[in-house]
Amino acid sequence: MSRTRGWFGWICAAFVSISLGHAAEGPLAERVILLANSDDPDSLRIARHYAEVRGVPAANIVALKLPLSEAITWREFIALLWHPLADRLIRDKWLDATPMELFDPIGRRKYAPYGHRIAALVVCRGVPLKILHDPDLVSEARPYTNHPQFRVNSGAVDAELSLLPAPGYNINAFVQNPLFQNERPADAERHIVRVSRLDGPTAADAYALVDLAVAAEKTGLLGRAYVDYSAKYRVGDEWLEATSRQLRDLSFDLSEDRDGNTMPMTARFDAPVLYFGWYAGDLDGPFRLPGFRFPPGAIALHIHSYSATSLRSTTHGWTAPLVARGVTATVGNVNEPYLEMTHRPNLLLRALARGWTLGEAIYFALPVLSWQAVAIGDPLYRPFAVSLEQQMEKRAELPPALAAYAVIRQMNELEAANQPDEAKALAIRSQRETPTLAVGMALATRLREADDKEGAGNALGFAAMIKRFSPDEWALAASAARLLAECGRGVRAVELWQTLLTLDKLPREMRIAWLREAAEAAKIAREVALASKWSAELAELTAPVEKK
Predict the structure, then answer these.
(1) CA-to-CA distance for 410 and 423, rounded, in angstroms?
(2) C-alpha span between 331 and 374 (Å, rounded)
(3) pLDDT tops 60 at residue 295
(4) Rounded to an integer, what distance in angstroms lies between the CA atom of residue 525 and that of residue 491?
(5) Rounded Cα distance, 502 and 497, in Å
(6) CA-CA distance, 332 to 196, in Å (whole number)?
(7) Are strands 368-369 and 175-176 parallel, antiparallel or unpaired?
(8) Regarding predicted confidence, which is higher, 436 or 5?
(9) Contact 452/471 with Cβ under 8 angstroms?
(10) Band of pLDDT at residue 347, cut at 50, 70 and 90
(11) What are phi and psi of 285, to 5 degrees?
(12) What's the angle, vertex CA 488, arms to CA 457 and CA 510, rounded to 5?
């Protein structure tokens, strides 16, 4: 991804010239518009499902006859999407504007806008994703087009629909987003429609996005946080540094990868409810584990130029593959956006942590519109609707495996308040009630750091009896095996390695890495037969392939 600087002081003339009244009040769901493709039955089903779950009036569904392809031309966009949608929104008083019998240079009907009362526009799978570059429409009328990389008009459909209340803007390059880092958006939001998309490789993936959001709003975010640095461009890593600080302030258990590559498949990656990283072209690392799924409510962002060039693949790019694996909210880019025109992870997290909706946070974190960005997820989703205090009060009602992460978060909070003994006591009580590997590791790690190997070994002794792990727990179990060996519980460590190495779908690279560790642990534990067996398997897997 290339970088560019400057020009952020420029304000689009369209925004300056519009004077709007106060936005209409009322329940957010009643002011959501759903956009579907009438030629795609799945698109209509997704829209109706969202309306039912969120209480959006059925009359708010706008179904247009659109191409079934992900990419369309500007002429198709204007004739089949922009004009019909604008006409419908004006007719139904969602967009307060006076149509004219005049057209701008690219064929859009002119209208004088006065305001809108749309809380969010939800674009449903089946509506085209991106608009192709049209060299005949290139114009030099905008400062950015002095730079060759911005002399383009290709972009995301959703990024153009954001500007429905600001017609007549130049489609080449981009338009500054007046909601970006705007702490008091009341005036600026009258000029912008917040757009997000329910989309993914399958209709079922898109259908599930609202269900996951609603489920997470009942429990609050439960899981760990992960930040994966690139070490390629300073500014991007600065955003991630700021993100890490916020995650610590929020008391999330945090893993950071700073080696410059994407996280290896063997990295600890249990319950990734928050993930921020870059910079690989396609989904990589622990996400590729067979059967991997995000916990409900998960928010994941991987910065890459073409992360959302298509939303139909489960392996190419990042945006669609993350959705296929059960993420609740993510963002991406349909073409090269250049780094400083992408969603800022630290700003996205800041807004969400304040209790803002996903739709509000997306636009707080995005510098420009009429460009390459798309956002996937329910715009009404509030991931921090439930506080940690509320989670702990109703811990017995939470899913046991995920409730463990509320306990760990509370432990972190107690330690930050200089109450380490209370944190350990909480972990011990939690393990007596419902033992989990996650809390066991959190307690054992703290005891080991206090040089209490005996206590750490006792805290993890039960781990060898666990015979089933979800894919995201595999590396956690391997970490437990290492800690058991370090604490003098070699036999228990070997038992845990045995369980891991009998997994049917264990990827080859993970098997090779763990066979080395398991064989060494077996030698130390004097499990001669196992050490010999694992060493022989390792030699076979790593032997050079003879050329015929």
Answers:
(1) 7
(2) 6
(3) yes
(4) 6
(5) 9
(6) 11
(7) antiparallel
(8) 436
(9) no
(10) very high
(11) 70, -145
(12) 85
Indicate the SS3 state at residue 195: strand
SS (H, E, C) 55-119: CCCHHHEEEECCCCCCEECHHHHHHHHHHHHHHHHHHCCCEEEEEEEEECCCCCEEEEEEEECCC
Tokens representing 528? 């001669």
What distance in Å separates the CA atoms of residue 548 and residue 540, rounded to the nearest whole number? Answer: 18
Per the CB < 8 A criterion, the answer to whether 176 and 290 are in contact is: no
CB-based burial label for 540 (10 Å; 0-12, 13-18, 19+): exposed
Please spell the DSSP secondary structure of 223-252, one letter per residue.
SEEEEE--SS-HHHHHHHHHHHHHHHHTT-
Question: For residues 120-154, b (16+ Cβ closer than 10 Å) or e, as one string?
Answer: bbbbbbbbbbbbeebeebeeeebebbeeeebbbbb
The Cβ of residue 174 has, within 10 Å, a number of other Cβ atoms equal to 26
pLDDT of residue 20: 30
How far is CA 382 from each of CA 19, 24, 247, 343, 360, rounded to the nearest angstrom?
A: 30, 21, 17, 18, 10
CA–CA separation, 517 and 514 (whole Å): 5
| Tens of pLDDT, residues 486-542 | 999 999 999 999 999 999 899 999 999 999 999 999 999 999 999 999 999 999 999
Neighbours of 298 (CB within 10 A): 25
Residue 37, strand partner residues? 64
Do the Cβ atoms of 262 and 288 come closer than 8 Å? no
* Structural contact between residues 505 and 290, judged by C-beta atoms closer than 8 angstroms: yes
CA angle, 227 then 231 then 234, to 5°? 100
Q: Are 296 and 212 in contact (CB under 8 A)?
A: yes
H helix and E strand count, the chain: 19, 17
Helix, strand or coil, per DSSP, at residue 193: coil
**Could you tell me how many residues make up the chain?**
548
Q: Alpha helix (H) ranges present in 420-489?
A: 420-433, 437-449, 453-460, 474-486
Provide the H-helix boundaries in 314-399. Answer: 319-324, 345-353, 358-364, 388-393
Q: What is the CA angle 311-314-317, rounded to 5? A: 60
- Which DSSP state fits 314? S
User: Phi-psi bin for 365: left (phi > 0), alpha (psi -120 to 50), beta?
Assistant: alpha
> 182-205, pLDDT tens digit by residue?
998 888 888 899 999 999 999 999
Helix 234-249, helix 345-353: angle, nearest 10 = 20
My answer on whether omega of the bond before 279 falls inside 30° of 0, hence cis, is yes
Q: How far apart are CA 380 and CA 359, in angstroms?
A: 6
> 61-120: per-residue pLDDT in tens?
999 999 999 999 999 999 999 999 999 999 999 999 999 999 998 999 999 988 999 999
Sole residue written with tokens 């002011």: 31
pTM (two decimals): 0.93
